[in-house]
Amino acid sequence: METTHEALLPSVARGDTTAFESLYDRYSSTLYALLLRILSNPEDAQEVLQETFVKAWTNAKMFDSARGSEVAWLISIARSRGIDRLRSRKIRGDRENDAGREISIHSAFVESTTGADKAVQSQESSAVRSALSELPEAQRLALELAYFEGLSQSEIAAKLGEPLGTIKTRMQLGMKKLRERLQAFK
Amino acid sequence: MTHEEFESIAALDAIGAATAEEARMLNEHLASCESCRRARDEFAEAATMLARDLDPVAPPPEVREHVIETIADEDAEEDNVIESRRRFIHPWWLATAATLFLALWGWREVGIRVARENVRTQLAQIEELKAANSLLHDQKEKLSVEMSALASPDTRAIALAGQQISPSASARVFLEPGKRRAIVFFQSLPSNPKDKSYQLWIIRADQPKPMSAGVFDVDNAGGASIVIENLPLATEMKGLAVTLEPRGGVEQPTNTNFYLMGNS
Fold it and tell me: How confident is the model at residue A101 (pLDDT cuts 50, 70, 90)?
């Protein structure tokens, strides 16, 4: 999927600020959507989004295209920072204040995204949706609770009222299917 | 654990759901397994599909501005650091730093050697203490048996008298017939040579040959004590005698030079 985009991180690693701006324009809406999903709070999501891009700027040299795609690398940074923020907020105990807060800004692609990027993103998005739609609902739910809420196996089992072994198997099967689908795209 | 099992852990790790122990085992394995490393990377890529499935949301424009400003500031800061490093790294400073480094390194090496020596000494002391502790434990066990024998109401005492070769020697035997056990305390026996041991014999009424009841060495005062287990029945015992035999004892007495004798 990623091969249709020109990779920007190698240029960013060389200190090319124009490439960095393109990187931001290409991926910020994907990362922001992810952070909103994890944090359910625009202020926190914006702050973590900034941290993510600053980290991408300083660590761009560490990106290895042989290990994965550019967008996956950025998503991993954003998700990791988002979950860290979520956990520290849980510790502070103010998560309830955010509960039920409606995200009203689900919108289309960022204005600055170019037409070509839009086409590529749209193509990718439908491929991803197709892959995820093939997952049984129970597998998908278990994966989402781990990925977006940072819950452990036992926390998910408790939340869903299922045995721990069942949850573990569901997550493993779900991930194996996603991996197979990903390999089919390549 | 098989590669397949490690791959299953990698699948969980990609969504942050592996336990700390699973993650630790996986990382150890990945250090030496190329195929599992590849699987881990593929699962990590696959996990991001969950994020890519979300509808993109445009962040407010000020976030972009802030990010661009921040990296520009970071660049300026880095330039300043490089410049100040350039100023700092003068040959004179370099030589001083190198000397200081070597001095510290030497000091550290000496410190490590001293610490190693201390560890060796402490380990040797621990071994000595263990041996002493084991000895004390054995002595305590022996004392406990002796106390029990002396305190028992059915204990019978037998005296062994010094013979011609050692007239001042003596011994007292405390017999516990119920337990078929005896404690023997020896006194004033001559020191035994290093290649010899004293051997206590039971002279039995029902057998022509004496039976060994144990070997022992005496201390500087000629004293010793031994515990005899599984004694013959009192009716089968005729007497006790002590000879000097090759170190470790023999099947039957090699001589008739008795140091101690007594009837039971």
Answer: very low
Cβ(B59)–Cβ(A32) below 8 Å? yes
How large is the ipTM? Answer: 0.81
Rounded to 5 degrees, what angle do the CA atoms B174, B177, B179 make? 100
Measured between beta carbons, the chain A residues lying within 8 angstroms of B57 are 29, 32-33, 36, 103, 105-107
CATH 2.60.40 fits B156-263, yes or no: yes
Domain boundaries, chain A: 2-110
Question: Chain B residue closest to A126 (CA)?
Answer: B53
Question: Any alpha helices (H) in A60-114, and if so which ranges?
Answer: 70-92, 95-98
Tokens at B39, concatenated? 């699987």
Tell me the per-residue pLDDT of B65-74, one tens digit each, with 9 for 90 and over: 999 998 888 7
3-state secondary structure of B182: strand
pLDDT digits (tens, 9 = 90+) for A160-185: 998 888 999 999 999 999 999 887 76
The minimal CB distance from B52 to the residues A124, A150, A168 is found for A124
In the block, which residue shows the tokens 């994907």?
Answer: A30
